[in-house]
């Protein structure tokens, strides 16, 4: 997927979502969803067709190939997980979380993006409920003050610095 531009990724995700909703995707639908004009859509999907990710009937419906569906599904899943991080962990409003997830997913390295995804999956699988540090962070967001915690160590300091405090 590293050969895709941010715009290519946005087109794939939008086609994927529209196909899920409507079964068929027209140039006009894609243009409306992305806030662009129809000629822009035609030019933008050309490289996706060349890459074998999208197919289009002559002046007709646009659809993802099997490979395009796999790529788009992965992109949508990562965006959703990043949105989850921004809304549930950082406490951003839904729309702001969505905008940031879409923006950041394009510009962070693949390793960083995967670490975000892994972190969110880790928290979702936590069998002990919300971790104490996350509860403390939420209190900090509301009050601006760190709750007291016996046994808590500053995550940003090394072991030697934590012992000196």
Outline the structure in words:
- This protein is mainly alpha-helical.
- The protein has helices spanning 6-22, 27-34, 38-50, 66-89, 94-107, 110-124, 132-143, 159-164; strands spanning 54-56, 62-64.
- It has a two-stranded antiparallel sheet with strand order 1-2.
- The chain is elongated.
- The relative contact order is 0.09.
The spatial strand order of the largest sheet comes to 1-2
**pLDDT averaged residue by residue:** 85
Question: Which secondary-structure class do the elements indicate?
Answer: mainly alpha
Major sheet size, sense and barrel closure: 2 strands, antiparallel
Radius of gyration, rounded? 21 Å
Tally the helices: what do you get?
8
Flag low-confidence runs.
none
- Using the alpha-carbon principal axes, give the shape: elongated
Strand runs, count: 2
What fraction of residues sit in β-strands? under 5%
Portion of residues within helices: 55-70%
**End-to-end C-alpha gap:** 46 Å
H/E order of the elements? HHHEEHHHHH
Labels describing this entry:
two-stranded antiparallel sheet, elongated, single chain, mainly alpha, 8 helices, 165 residues, 66% helix
Please specify the SSE layout and strand pairing.
Elements: H1 6-22, H2 27-34, H3 38-50, E1 54-56, E2 62-64, H4 66-89, H5 94-107, H6 110-124, H7 132-143, H8 159-164
Antiparallel strand pairs: 1-2
